[in-house]
Amino acid sequence: MIALSELSDSDADQSRLRAFYESIYVEQFPDRNERESLENMQRYLGLKAQGWYGANNYHIVLATDAGVPVGGSISDFLAEAEAGVIEFLAVTPGAQRGGVGRAVLDETERLLALDAERGIQAPIACIVAEMNDPRRPAGVPDNMDPAARTLIWHRWGYRGLDFPYVQPALSEEQGSVENLILLAKPFRPEWQRALPARGVERIVHEYLRWAMRIEAPAQCVEYRGMAAHLGSHPEVNALSLAEYVGRDAERPLVVREVRSAESADFSAVMALYRAAFDGGPHCIDEREFRRALGAERAEAAYHLWALGRSEASAPEGFASFFASERAGFGGYVAFSGELRRSGRFPLLVARIEEQMLRDYPGARGWYAEAALDRDLAPLLRAGFRELALEYVQPPLRAGLARVPARLLYRPFGRSYAAPRLGSDELLEDVEGILRAVYAVADSRADATYLRLVSSLDASGGRVRVR
Length: 466
What we know:
Number of strands: 18
Distance between the termini: 60 Å
Shape: elongated
CATH architecture of the largest domain: 3-Layer(aba) Sandwich
Number of domains: 2
Oligomer: single chain
Strand order of the largest sheet: 1-2-3-4-5-7-6-9-8
């Protein structure tokens, strides 16, 4: 039987807090830069007992099973922002899928709503929470599948706040964290699709003051960056977390991995490929798909996906792409039938990024090539940016010459400015692509690589975007 309780600063509760911290908290938050110290938690409970928080509040909720900790949460009520913040919510792997996480969340939300009634005599405006961004690389391996976690928070009614959130360093020994997304569960009807930017800025300001103990947020470089962005926008979009990871019940996109050239899906995908591409210089021979599926690669992974609207439906689209340690590379994508012009391309982009980060969690983004006469609008809307460099595509079939092409890049996840790519980064990425995708043994001697070096030299070594 799961029991929920709120911890105080009593000796008994301090002991229970230590057991929770050592058995659950540290394991569930492996990135030390995201982790609050046990000593701080104990101190905050003491300050709460002294009335230090005033109209604000601080909560640690513990879930136990026969006295053994199985989950818990840490949260704050911010009176000035009329909002609550869930700093951490964790459940042991053995207790997941058993309703423990939802029970902890419900109790946490109840306490925060009660804080609003008592502290500001008004309903709470929203509750926000930090979560690892499932589409951003992390320096430390995640303790849970990021997409699965995201879908859980989606089912709990949370949405993603579309602004560049950065958690400042929690102490002098820790660093800031950029691979997070701030979630929100709005309770005001008018905030369901977007929150006022001024309100989000106030939440962040008070969160830094009361939870991170940054007395003057305006002097914090991370806060200034967030405030500048929020100050230039009237509102902050509240993203569907399911759509953010490429799932949408109203526009289902089923992905089936094509693992063999002998599968029925492979034949269907090749028929789609022939119908979508005209066999020009930017097209490969169908035999190359067979070779790609059968090839062993030490430094890259290849994927060929059949796409449909249901598990039982025949493929109505396909995608091929490579993932590697530094960056991914998009090959061919085509939609037909009811998938065509259905708004599913952003969902596919999200699913591809999820797969690339599964293959190589440290990768930063991915590249795509496009013919000079291709309409780039779908790629640009999906967050790709064309690099202002002279680029030629290696020959795709025997007897073909290199042809000029556009090279595009997209950093993983949300992007709010032109991508920052150093020339050395770009050259290393392209070198890897030439080896993994085009099977070029000596990449640095290849004409495509050398042409790119010359183009960079002409631009003063800067990677610009159009």
